[in-house]
Design brief:
The protein has 215 residues and is mainly alpha-helical. The chain has ten helices and four strands, in the order H-H-H-H-E-E-H-H-H-H-E-E-H-H. The chain has one domain: Nitrile hydratase alpha /Thiocyanate hydrolase gamma (Nitrile Hydratase, Chain A, Alpha-Beta Complex).
Length: 215
Amino acid sequence: MTSHHHPHDDHDHHDNHFSDMQARVKALESVLTEKGLIDPAAIDAIVETYETKVGPRNGAHVVAKSWSEPEFAEWLRLDATGAIESLGYAGRQGEHMRAVFNTPETHNLVVCTLCSCYPWSVLGLPPVWYKAPPYRSRAVIDPRGVLEEFGLALGAEKKIRVWDSTAELRYIVIPERPAGTDGLGQEALAALVTRDSMIGTGVAMPPGEHAGDRP
């Protein structure tokens, strides 16, 4: 069953082809490099850090703490902004947060239908597909199909709720805790949390795998 909500409940696939845009960016980068205004290696390092390390690692800490500390999970439900700020993660599009929790009955998916609002402070830089028009439109129209394209097939009985991120409110999905993780500490739990699981296009990994093993 699929429900709709303005956070839309049930948008597209991860189209990574932006040849025109990439060409413009590369041209601008070349001009700025020739003028000695930027260092391409430094830019690449910054992007890599925010896209795959700093941001997603912060979000994984939030998720792991919510899994292991019921009081923190409840705080996260009631005041995600305050709970996240208590861990030192604030600023840059993370000022107004809401945490939505996956359950055996409901799977949450985040999209920004108008642009690419995204909580940098907890998830890092948004992936290319998140900003792509196909994802932004299809995640609302056919969320189940979109998730299948990401390799996530959900049973027909599971409701999909799509949340529309805006400049006023941004979301983080708290994935379900994987089975067999009762004895793991927060650091080990955080290693199972992927960026995509916090957007809703994926789920947390089972014990024995590591978030760094997947994109």
